Amino acid sequence: MEDHLPQRVRVERRAVSEDESRRANGPDWDRYADEYQATHGGFLGDTGFVWGPEGLTEDEAGVLGDVSGRDVLELGSGAGQCSRWVRVHGGTSYGLDLSARQLQHSLRIDEATGIAVPSVRGTATALPFADASYDVVFCSFGALQFIADLDAAVAEVARVLRPGGRFAFSITHPTRWSFPDDPSDAGLTAMSSYWDRTPYVEVDDDTGLVSYVEHHRTLGDWVSLLAGHGFRIVALVEPEWPEDHDRVWGGWSRVRGRLIPGTAIFAADLAVG
Ligand SMILES: C[S@@+](CC[C@H](N)C(=O)[O-])C[C@H]1O[C@@H](n2cnc3c(N)ncnc32)[C@H](O)[C@@H]1O
Question: Under 8 Å CB-to-CB from 33, ≥6 apart: which residues?
Fold first, then answer.
């Protein structure tokens, strides 16, 4: 739903299963990974931790808490920039991503920086880790909005976290769903219902197959989902667009960013006992 639309796709809104979402999004991220890293890699920084297009960093936000000495898992880790930041700050981080090509970029940066993030190819809905093996699980615009079965993903996060562990993630701000994905003034007129959860789907015109999917949940959906899996929300950060920030990233821009939120960052702690 941003700057990766290939040539011959048609856009639809319709129900899509978890299997179909994964079958589409893995190959889509494989195709898009080189362009994504070439376009956004410099902004992200090889050992940087950026929560979203506004450029809010974890150094500024402090959403994860002190990661030193902590076991940390990143979902939808892409090229592992954020997890590398965790390692620089004394944490033991691991990555998980659906896209093999994104993970190849992660390996490339591991080798270039000498800061390696062991990473595994997989889906956030079936984590290949033991129960209670992490202190922190986080996700910076990775995985969550691409998943149909979000209940399974949040259950998996709760399973692999230790009691009291933190789950922090950034997503497209749910209110954006009402607006066209356009960085100009045209993206400032609400066109569709905030409450319509029907997924955004791109279908390859040549094959008729789904080639990309994004799922939407309202803020209330997120609160209920987290509470239902034993989490207590400790923060909801809505980064403001910085005065001196002129970068356009898909539908994010200064034009829209100075008026409406583009990113939501949740932090939630798993109940103890
Ligand atoms: C917007 S990128 C963000 C990557 C990284 N966090 C960053 O900030 O650059 C989204 C990532 O989520 C991954 N992803 C999509 N669906 C996933 C799933 N079901 N499980 C794990 N990762 C997934 C994609 O392969 C992609 O690398």
Answer: 78, 99, 101, 102, 104, 105
For β-strands 92-97 and 71-75, DSSP reports them as parallel
Measured in Å, residue 189 CA sits from the centre of ligand 1 at 28
Q: Would you say 213 and 196 are in contact if contact means Cβ atoms under 8 Å apart?
A: no
Tokens of 28: 């889509």
The three-state secondary structure class of 87 is helix
Kindly report, residue by residue over 103-127, the tens digit of the pLDDT. 999 999 999 999 999 999 999 999 9
Q: Are 108 and 117 in contact (CB under 8 A)?
A: no
CA distances, 269 to each of 82, 136, 158, 167, 172 (Å): 20, 9, 9, 6, 21
Residue nearest to atom 10 of ligand 1 (CA): 142
Q: Whose CA is nearest to atom 5 of ligand 1?
A: 78
Q: Which atom of ligand 1 is nearest to the CA of 146?
A: 16
Structure token pair of residue 113:
């920086």
Q: Probe ligand 1: pick from 77, 108, 149, 212, max atoms within 8 Å of CB?
A: 77
State residue 5's pLDDT score. Answer: 56
Instruction: Locate 123 and state its tokens.
Output: 């889906």
Phi, psi of 45 (to 5 degrees): 80, 135
